[in-house]
Amino acid sequence: MTKKEEKKEEKKGLLDRAIDAVSSRDEKEAAEAARVEAAKAAAEAARVAAEKQAAEAKARAAEARAAAEKEAAEAKARMAQMQREEAMQRAAEMREKMMMAAKERAEAQAQAQQQRTYVVQSGDSLSKIAKELLGDANRWPEIFEANKDQISNPNLIYPGQKLRIPQK
Could you report the per-residue pLDDT of 101-159, keeping only the tens digit for each? Predict the structure, then answer.
């Protein structure tokens, strides 16, 4: 303390000293309360910051999960699309093969029909035609079956009718 302060201290009376002591004690209590409040505020700020960090981490994790799920869904969709395209290609190839086979059968049938037709002459019967073309008169039902679309009664055939003849 300086001399001036010492003189001032001496001049203070008992009341002034009591006031100084109370003021000093009040200031200490206020300072302690302020320190406690500051510590509480700092703890609260740390808690809020930790919660914010946790929320941000949770949000990043959710975004990462969503991105992974989206990527998985896109990969699944691409795979499904590829499978559909492959199935469509196989189906088209199968249709093409079936069309070719049907065309070949139709051509073979047309050729067989062209080669194995007979124009009915006056005096012909199915048994006579079977004997001449198939070698056995008893095979006339085969000619009848092959021509049911134009013969309703095997005993009634007419000159000029074109009949399909089955293979021997």
Answer: 999 998 887 766 555 889 999 999 999 999 999 999 999 999 999 999 999 999 999 99
Last residue of a domain, one of 75, 90, 111: 111
Please indicate, yes or no, whether residues 79 and 103 belong to a single structural domain of this protein: yes
Residue 123 sits in the same domain as residue 44: no
Domain at 164, CATH number: 3.10.350.10
Residue 29 class from Cβ within 10 Å (0-12 exposed, 13-18 middle, 19+ buried)?
exposed
| CB-based contact 166:146 (threshold 8 Å) | yes
Tokens of 49: 């910051």
pTM of the model: 0.37
H or E stretch at 119: strand 117-119
Q: Which residues contact 168 (CB under 8 A, 6 or more apart)?
A: 134, 135
